[in-house]
Every structure is written in C-alpha cells, then in structure tokens.
Design goal:
Radius of gyration: 36 Å
Structural class: mainly beta
Number of domains: 2
Distance between the termini: 116 Å
Strand order of the largest sheet: 1-3-2-6-5-4
Oligomer: single chain
CATH class of the largest domain: Mainly Beta
Helix content: 10-25%
Strand content: 35-45%
CATH topology of the largest domain: Ribosomal Protein L25, Chain P
Length: about 220
C-alpha cells in the first residue's frame, strides 16, 4: 500500500474555545500518540485531511506525517487511530494519530471486497455481509488495500467463512472462531395483497313479499270467499 502524506503544525492552545476557533479557521485539532513519549498536540488543514480521506483507504494506510515547528523535521510513520466527527454535520472535529515503526507488526481493519457475479444472487438471492471489514496483522508495509473474495460460485445457502480466506504473504487474520463473513440467502417471498371478498345482498326491485300461509285453514278461508 502506497504511503500517503500529511503535514501538521504544533498546537499551542487547548480547550474547547481554542478548538472551535481552529475549526472556524478551516483547521482540525489533532494529537499524535508516541510509544514511550508524551503525545504531541497538533493542528492539520481541514482541506488537506479531506483530500487525504478522498484518496482511498486512509484509515488503514501508512501516512508520512511531517510536523512543522519552524525547522526541518523528519517524517514520521503514523496511522489514523480515530476520527471524531460532528453527530450529524459529519464535520471532522478531532483526529487521533498513532506513530508506528515499520519493523513491528500492527493490527488494522481493512475492507472486504467481492469480485464476480454470484450464481445465487442471479437466481434471486440476496448477498448478506456479516463483516464488511476484517482485522489483519502484518508489518505496516504489507497492509493490503482490501480482502478480495470471489463470489462467482456462491449459490443460495452458501457462505464464506474466515478460514477459507487466503491472505497475502505476511498477513494473518486473528480469530478465535471460524466466523462467517458473508452469505447468500433466498429472497423473502412477496407479500400477497389480501383481497377481502364482500358478499352483497341485492334485492330485486318490486319483488313481492313472501307470504307464509296457515295450511288448510288458510286455503278454506280463501275458497269460502
């Protein structure tokens, strides 16, 4: 995975008021965590960081960070540890960065990518993802862009489990159980519209009312008249 670049400056102010002012000025407060050292309070350009995120899987990429403090400073290898965003505006409020060394393994999450057209999906099934990201452990320079799964032969009822995944050399997927990554399920039956049959009673216009006679007595009375 190609390393991305990001520049930052040391941050003097602290607190919510200083952070709000930075955001109004188009900047984002950040902190760089370093092993065995205190964290560095930084500020980065909102435009630069947005462009970085737009390039691809920045959350799982090695980033070459240069901290500008008025003099030449060496680039540091870092990973994005956390991005805090506004609850509904999606504006980036704060960034946590973690400094890493290229000769020590790390664990990061990378996306799952599928290729091919599933037989089961073509027959009307639905692809269900149980995991859209997978944790992998490897050296920073070996982080893959994604875990690619060929779904061409998957029929309805078939699943892909983690033990069947072939990872690149030097990359492992830590796991305790053989969990499911994705599966093809049958489509839910369409709900038939229930049509209620209503029986209508139709009375004929001008129909004579039914007369119930009293047997022979009624007939005799009619004949005497």
């Amino acid at each position: 995975m190609t390393a991305m670049k990001l520049s930052a400056q040391l941050r003097d102010g602290s607190g919510k008021g200083a952070a709000r002012k930075l955001r109004r000025d188009g900047k984002i407060p950040a902190i760089l965590y370093r092993r065995g050292e205190d964290g560095l309070s930084l500020v980065v350009s909102n435009d630069e960081f947005s462009n970085l995120l737009a390039k691809g899987q920045a959350k799982a990429s090695v980033i070459r960070l240069q901290v500008k403090d008025g003099k030449e400073s060496p680039e540091r290898n870092v990973l994005i540890r956390e991005i805090q965003t506004h609850p509904y505006k999606r504006d980036v409020y704060h960034i946590d960065l973690q400094e890493i060394t290229m000769d020590q393994e790390i664990t990061v999450k990378i996306p799952v990518e599928t290729v091919g057209d599933s037989i089961g999906v073509e027959m009307g099934g639905i692809m269900e993802f149980k995991r859209r990201e997978l944790e992998v452990t490897c050296l920073p320079g070996n982080i893959p862009d994604s875990i690619v799964i060929d779904i061409t032969e998957l029929d309805i009822g078939d699943s892909v489990h983690v033990e069947s995944i072939v990872t690149p050399e030097g990359v492992t997927i830590p796991r305790d159980v053989n969990f499911t990554i994705l599966t093809v399920v049958g489509a839910a039956p369409e709900e038939e519209e229930e049509v209620e049959e209503v029986e209508e009673e139709v009375e004929e216009e001008g129909a004579e009312p039914e007369v119930i006679g009293k047997g022979k007595e009624a007939d005799e009375e009619a004949s005497e008249e």
